Amino acid sequence: MDGTDRRQRARQVIPQLAEKLELSADLTILSERWNTVARLGDSGVIAKAATLAEMAKADPLHWFQLEIEVCRTLADQGGPVHRPYADGLYIVDGLPITLWHEVEGEMGEATEVELVESLATVHRLGGDLLRDEPWFATITTHFADVFPKLHDRSVIDPIALGQLKDRYQELMELVVAANLMNGFIHGDAQRKNAMATDNGAVWIDFEECSYGPIAWDLACLTMHRRFDTDRVLDYYAEMSGHDRIRNADTNTLKQLRDLEGLTWMLAIQDEREPEFKAETASLLRDVLAAQRL
């Protein structure tokens, strides 16, 4: 099934669920880059269907369920997160779909200050959430899932895959040795996963959340060149009351983030446009070249 078919399937089953719940089946597609995200008419509800997650995740449903549970817990505490609608998680024709109350008061892109403040609040309210789950599952489970999938589908040659595995092990050894402070983390705290509202930034897309190094979320946030790493780390220390995260540790996590992103792209490249595959191949060459230095 190619990417167009997967997206078309989501466009077909989301209205079926909407009609069953007596919501508007008039879809406005907001994103189809990874999941299919759509607004359901004027109902104030957003639907998210997992269209490509199975290409990289062994159990996408588990992560969708965690996202629902975590966001409901944080929202009940007044946390800056989107709130699940009704039961939240549904299966239609084998496709996992989550429903969410639309974030109100959207004004555009959140500022650096708003993002750091709201992220510190999420960490504080989240506390030990998911501590019973595997440590740093955002990363450890991802690579445990994606490497076999890349191998089984012969996405890249075995030598290159072995180099990627070696790089992952090197970076994880550095992360463990750094003895970083742990807590609940968003897992994918990039600026696109936060929305500006009248009351500050609200975080969405918690489907990679876990219990792990707090610094991971700051590394993800500062991957974008518009954010100054020193300023973000200084302000986070001020807002959270924690010791300032070291730049060297953030840099290690950024390298791990790059590797995570590359493996995601490799996993889904056959479902995407030729330009995406070309970008993925270029990134792979860069990573392997750096590995040989």
Keyword list:
alpha+beta, Phosphorylase Kinase, domain 1, Aminoglycoside 3'-phosphotransferase, Chain: A, domain 2, five-stranded antiparallel beta sheet, two-stranded antiparallel sheet
What oligomeric arrangement do these chains adopt?
Answer: single chain
Strand runs, count: 9
Q: Calculate the terminal CA-CA distance, rounded to whole Å.
A: 39 Å
Helix content: 40-55%
Strand order in the sheet with the most strands: 1-2-3-5-4
Average pLDDT, rounded to a whole number, is: 93
Structural class: alpha+beta
What is the percentage of strand-forming residues?
15-25%
| Total separate domains | 2
Classified in CATH, the superfamily of the largest domain is: Aminoglycoside phosphotransferase (APH), C-terminal lobe
CATH class membership of the largest domain: Alpha Beta
Question: Summary?
Answer:
This protein is of the alpha+beta class.
Question: What would your notes on this structure say?
Answer:
The chain is α+β, with helices and mostly antiparallel strands and 293 residues long. The chain has two domains: 99 residues, Phosphorylase Kinase, domain 1; 181 residues, Aminoglycoside phosphotransferase (APH), C-terminal lobe (Aminoglycoside 3'-phosphotransferase, Chain: A, domain 2, Alpha-Beta Complex). Helix content is 51%, strand content 16%. It contains nine helices and nine strands. The strands form three sheets. It has a five-stranded antiparallel sheet, sandwiched between helices. α8 crosses α9. The radius of gyration is 19 Å and the shape is globular. It starts with a helix and ends with a helix.
